[in-house]
Amino acid sequence: METRMIDKIIGWVKSFLPLYLFTFLLLSSCVDEEQYDDTPMGNFEALWKIMDEHYCFFEYKHEAYGLDWQQVYNKYKVRVNNQMTNKQLFEVLSDMLGELRDGHVNLMAAHDLGRYWSWYEDYPTNFSDTLLRRYMGTDYQIASGLDYKILDDNIGYIRYESFNNAIGEGNIDEVMKYMLLCRGVIIDIRNNSGGTLTNAEKLAARFCQEKTLVGYYQHKTGPGHQDFSGREARYLEPSSNLRWNKKAVLLTNRQVYSAANEFAVYMKTLPNVILVGDHTGGGAGMPFNSSLPNGWSVRFSAVPMYDAQGNSTEFGIEPDYNVQQTDEDFAKGYDTIIEFARRLLVQ
């Protein structure tokens, strides 16, 4: 499981570099300017300083749940001393980073990965592999990263489990052509915790009929918690290939994160798309990396992103219809969320 998560982390970072190379270079050139000793105290001070000057959500999280980064420093400094072991230090530093409640924040060492996964672990899954196999059967088709079939009520169903799985324009064309006569289509991204943002944009463009404002982003411009550039708009352009202009339903749950969360943000702006399921997990900060004196690596959110109304989506977005999987439906072999979506599409 750890290997898969590290692979996802690498994929997230790679997906964001082309869009924000300038910011990455700016951050990497200034994060390590101040030198600290390779001691537990030195590594603690270095990590706190890196986050203090470059993490992008301090003000937002202070408003959301009262985060005070200086108080966090005072709380954890007393737990650090130069006689502690590496494993003890790793535990303290990981706990300190956990105060940020950010799934894009990780401490990486040879022996462990510090992480915050409560953004989905503390909530119902609203997804079942057992139920998915019932709906998909064995006769579904596979177009690179997309699994798809037509359900028995002539509703198209597309499953995209990770935006790390590549899709080409030709793959999407084949799916669109196959479902051409369907009454509507369901796109299921539940448990999709992100990947390559260009894959998300490529698929969303197939449901977009005109250039659409989907959100904004900012760059960090200085060490202060409020030092940001002005907000820059992000637009989704309609695909020049086959596009879907009938009704579509996007299924979400708490494990929809990072690039998948952005995909949900894009799709929610489109008039023919309805979001059904649970609140998404969030992850609206573009992640970047720095290193500590002892060689450990820290990943953190550095570029904040917002929806089309200017709201932060760091803690996710609410679907149009919040639907939870019920035990009664599960016992009968029904996915409550899929069945709700099917009813919407046949109305």
Characterise the protein shown here.
The model is unreliable at 1-6 and 8-32 (pLDDT under 50). The chain is built from 13 helices and 13 strands. It starts with a helix and ends with a helix. It is an alpha/beta fold. The protein is 37% helix and 18% strand. The longest helix is centred in the first third of the chain and has 15 residues, at 2-16. Helix 10 runs parallel beside helix 11.
In short:
This protein has helices at residues 2-16, 21-30, 40-54, 58-65, 69-77, 86-98, 118-121, 129-136, 169-178, 197-204, 259-268, 327-332, 336-346; strands at residues 106-108, 113-114, 141-143, 146-150, 155-159, 184-188, 212-217, 232-236, 248-252, 273-277, 285-291, 297-307, 321-322.
Architecture blueprint of SSEs:
Layout: H1 2-16, H2 21-30, H3 40-54, H4 58-65, H5 69-77, H6 86-98, E1 106-108, E2 113-114, H7 118-121, H8 129-136, E3 141-143, E4 146-150, E5 155-159, H9 169-178, E6 184-188, H10 197-204, E7 212-217, E8 232-236, E9 248-252, H11 259-268, E10 273-277, E11 285-291, E12 297-307, E13 321-322, H12 327-332, H13 336-346
Parallel strand pairs: 5-6, 6-9, 9-10, 10-13
Antiparallel strand pairs: 1-2, 1-12, 3-4, 4-5, 7-8, 7-12, 11-12
Helix pairs in contact: 10-11
